[in-house]
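Memo to structure team: turn this sequence into structure tokens by end of day. - J.P.
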Amino acid sequence: MLKPQDILAILKVHSWDSTNWTYSSLAQSLGMSASEVHAALERSEAAGLYYGSERKILKQAVLEFLVHGLRYVFYAQPGPLSRGLPTAHSAEPLKSKLVASPSEVYVWPDPQGVVRGQAIAPLYRSVPQAASNDPELYALLSLIDAIRVGRVREQRLAVGELEKRIVAAL
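Reply from structure team:
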């Protein structure tokens, strides 16, 4: 059974596609333990999202899961106002493509954040930290949140952007 941190781990592997990484370096960048990362990648491999011997994600399968399954398995509801890191359509790459009301700002709660908006529970507790240190991972996680909590237009834009970022690199 997949866990939310599995998605975080495979997206990080994708963003580090061309680098040699270790479980320890991956874990440190994600704010997880090496054993958590190892278990996450094993579950992802069992689910058909990761090819362990090649250390690559199965891009088409990952995209299909993110687009069609993630919002049902790891659903999210906007919560109370909070300070945090912008996500979904409130962060790039969607922020510049949409005009949104200031009352429709979504954030991952984070004491270091400077933006106020409706709280969206991140996939995993270390998402704000991991996203702050990796712009590509931040963009992917924000796009996923647009699918999880966005309206149809935001979801369509997010899907198109995910296709470019994940599958276009085939």
